[in-house]
Write a structure and sequence with these properties.
globular; 7-stranded mixed beta sheet; 7 strands; 7 helices; Aminopeptidase
Length: 174
Amino acid sequence: MLIRESLPADLPSIFRIINAAAEAYRGVLPTDVWHEPYMPMDALLAEIRQGVAFWIAEDDGSMVGAMGIQDKGAVALIRHAYVAPTAQRKGVGAGLLRHIERLTDKPILIGTWAAASWAIEFYRRNGFAIVADKKREGLLRAYWSIPERQIEASIVLADKRWMNTQHSQREGDE
């Protein structure tokens, strides 16, 4: 598997992978947040304009996964992490995640739908922890530009760096 930074020519394949993999959300997400396609092309382009840099995984020259990273100052966000349905459970997502983790020394946060148990479990298996609910809403408002309804239906996971900074801050407060 080859992991590389995306090129403008990769955009149609990224779009296809995101929307094919997001079919897993159909019937799981509240009906008022599901739309067709899950991520329209103009929304994907807006994310890129707002600083989401995509990395892609290729297997035998075919794109099998895409994952974005967005620098938000104090933290980096994992954004729009999707693996083609035919390539899931083969290490593609973990490979992309490990690659992106090496791109930054900032704490990493991930927002996902609270109902996406498979995504939450994936991130937990890969060293991320669910952020306490009392901090979740503040983080979603501070670092993401998402509708109120999505804030209500989402959770945040964090890497060890973020969790350690929170632990250090709590000790400093005592």
